[in-house]
Amino acid sequence: MRWSARWPPLIECAVGAVGASAQALVARLINRETEMLSLLRGVARVEGDPVVVILGDREALPWSEGVTYLGQPSSAPGLLLPTNLQPSVPEALLERQLCARAQPPLATWPQGDGLLLVPLGAARPLSRAKLEAFLEGRS
Amino acid sequence: MSTEIQAASASLRRAIQTASSGLIERETLVELIALAAVAEEHLLIVGPPGTAKSEAVRRMSRTLGGRYFEYLLGRFTEPSELFGPVDLRKLKDGIVETETTGMLPEAELAFLDEVFLGSTAILNTLLGILNERTFRRGHTKIRCPLRICVGATNDLPQDDTLSAFADRFLLRFFVEPIADPLLEELLAGGWSLKNAGQDAEPMGLQHLDILTQAARSASVDEVRDSLAHAIRTIRSAGVALSDRRAVKTQRLIAAAAALAGRQHPTEADLWPLIYAVPTQEGQKLVRDSLRELLESSENPTLPSAAEQASRGPVARAARLVESAQSLLQTPPAEGQAQRAWQLKLEGIAREIDAGFTPETLPESLAQVRAQIVERIQRSP
Fold this sequence. Notes:
- Chain A is α+β, with helices and mostly antiparallel strands.
- Chain A contains 4 helices and 10 strands.
- By secondary structure, chain B is an alpha/beta fold.
- Chain B has helices spanning 3-20, 27-39, 53-64, 79-83, 88-92, 120-132, 163-166, 183-191, 205-216, 221-236, 243-259, 280-289, 303-310, 313-328, 336-355, 363-378, and strands at residues 43-46, 68-72, 109-113, 134-137, 140-143, 148-153, 171-174.
- In chain B, the strands form 2 sheets. In chain B, strands 2-3-6-1-7 form a 5-stranded parallel beta sheet, covered by helices on one side.
- In chain B, a hairpin with a 2-residue loop joins strand 4 (134-137) and strand 5.
């Protein structure tokens, strides 16, 4: 499967990051005011290359270098895809294939030669304690 | 483009920025007022009460300068409240003349709120003013200096008898209440709104005259085929666009080109066609149908309007560059204002990264992004 530039972009409703970018994203979030954190939910994986996906309204999403913004395509509502990229296969087909592997909703974006897949069902409201645990490599 | 036209465009851009400062999500509306004024056409704003329709018009009229007339129409509004009272001295001699001093017939910019509530007598007289810039009533017949009339209404009229009058407003803009995520910005902007722009020196209508003349002398020959194709696409999508609207759209396109610094319109100037579509659903449908044709849309004087019409990457990049440059030039002092400013910078960086890939990022936007990133990373 290949990806090409998408226009118009999807409206961002989440942001994903891997490795050092994930660490940098969470480090930026820790400095935010508590009421701003309360507008966001997140899911993370600390084993191996750390991965984080933060969900929330567009205006509440943080910025950090190297992250991937994600949006929900109308043809595949069970997926969050990169806002600025379009897959070469029909999105509904991609949704069917990926949802056979993991429970939706799912975030997915190209990573290296493959596709990163992050189940979002366990997303929880953010807290400073959870962000610190992520930075320390604790789940 | 001549330096005179360049200077006039720059002046109008500053007027637009002054007028929209503090208003949230109303830049497009203010820009459309400017476009209508240059094109010598009229604008109808459709939206619920309390959505800053009249505030946007008032502020734009203050910054443009010129004689301004505003009125809220009701079912029982008398013609004399808009056009002036009958001159009683002349009436004694059997002559029905209207004393128009300070009234709508002498205004250069007009705003009529709840415009469709006017009586038949009022609307018939208004038709002449809007169409021919001529006020006729009894023995009075005068040429009106009206540049633009902005009408406002909560809903489009369903009554067929009003449709002829409604059709005189070539440009249509639909406003919605501000979305929840922007409420903090709305409250902050509204708090500082009261005296905003009142001290600013009016632009002066002579700049508008220069741009109007440039628009009148533009040739639309080069884009006529593309425009005809666009209109066919609109009609085959089931959206009604009258012959009158189709022909008059050329004036909007010529005005957009003049404001963009182009002597003659190109495909980058077709975007005002969206705002000539009479209904909100129609505008959405046409925007989707013409997405490819409007991809190259851009206008440095009216960036928000061009982007909102076309949703094209060129227009979005131009708008983001302008927003970023404006923010980077005005860093506040330390404290809460600094934090809010930083969040706005991050918001622009987010919109850039969410919309463009590294390969599709225009050079001008890449440069501005680098400046934003450097500024963000400098802060704690």
